[in-house]
Amino acid sequence: MGLQTLLEKLKTLYSEIEGLPPDRIVPTVGLNIGRAEAYKSKLIFWDLGGQLGLRTIWEKYFEEAHAVIYVVDAACQARFGDAKSALEKVLRHEDLYDAPFLVFANKQDLPEAFSGDELANHLNLKELHDHAHLFQSISAYDGSGIRDGISWLVEAMRKSKRTEMLRHRADAVVVA
Ligand SMILES: Nc1nc2c(ncn2[C@@H]2O[C@H](COP(=O)(O)OP(=O)(O)OP(=O)(O)O)[C@@H](O)[C@H]2O)c(=O)[nH]1
Ligand SMILES: [Mg+2]
């Protein structure tokens, strides 16, 4: 939760376009796309929407994704169980083999929010150990923590064999 607020903040931080302010954001139906450039990498973000009915389309994007950013509302402990089971499924998906996972513990501006480390303990996901991963505390409202997370992710993608594999496949498509 907080995907689009994050996406708009990413635009503000990493591109020339000013993202929408939080009061202009409505629930996502379909797909939001954001583009940005960070640490000399061109980044394309697909916001796939968290509502139950939309989750079945997530996997259509897995094959081409270099990495996953999973945003959790860290101020809403009641939904941690749901976040865990949804994330488990994503982590196990074979199309995401070797993809780095960045989990954002969002809404740190709220006093009840759990930190990234606390969230990691609560979710306790064994499947994460098959992936490069980081739990990062952020606030999509004030932007704190986002740069740390994105710089980690860019580095993790650079090191990942998956990035290389996807690049070769893209080349193959161009030649064909
Ligand atoms: N306090 C606080 N609220 C936030 C933050 N990020 C998002 N929100 C609020 O959380 C709600 C959901 O934010 P969205 O950005 O629409 O989240 P989303 O994941 O795109 O939601 P859906 O499109 O409905 O799946 C909105 O009311 C936001 O204002 C944050 O960092 N702090
Ligand atoms: Mg949304």
From TrEMBL:
Keyword set, alphabetical order: Chloroplast, ER-Golgi transport, GTP-binding, Lipoprotein, Magnesium, Metal-binding, Myristate, Nucleotide-binding, Plastid, Transport
Pfam assignment, any one: Arf
GO terms (BP aspect): Golgi to plasma membrane protein transport; intracellular protein transport; protein localization to Golgi apparatus
InterPro entries: P-loop_NTPase, Small_GTP-bd, Small_GTPase_ARF, Small_GTPase_ARF/SAR
GO molecular function, one term: GTPase activity
Annotated residues for binding of GTP: G50, N106, K107, Q108, D109
Positions annotated to bind Mg(2+): T28
UniProt KW Metal-binding keyword: yes
Stored PROSITE patterns: ARF
GO cellular component: Golgi apparatus
UniProt similarity note: Belongs to the small GTPase superfamily. Arf family.
Record's protein name: Uncharacterized protein
Source species of the chain: Ceratopteris richardii
Taxon lineage: Eukaryota, Viridiplantae, Streptophyta, Embryophyta, Tracheophyta
